[in-house]
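Researcher: We're teaching a course module on how sequence relates to structure. For the next exercise, students receive a sequence and then see the predicted structure as tokens, so they can try to spot secondary structure elements on their own. Here is the exercise chain.
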Amino acid sequence: MRANRLRELRLARRMSQLQLAAAAGTTPTLISFIERYGHVPRADLRRRLARALGVDEVDVWPEAGEEAKG
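Model: And here is the predicted structure for the students to work with:
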């Protein structure tokens, strides 16, 4: 399993899963699932999570950059 950086970035910003979920308009359960299993969410949720963390989407999910290239 490829570990994503979501948890690392969230903790660096001292955010709980609940806080990140609220900022991104999703649920803490989904945040937990993404962090635990390395799930790569849909593009719209990736953008909202990255925005809530104050980073670029590719900082969390490098493969998102490849997706954008087409």
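Model: If you want an answer key for the exercise: The two ends are 24 Å apart (CA to CA). The helical segments are 6-12, 17-24, 28-37, 43-53, 57-60, 63-69.
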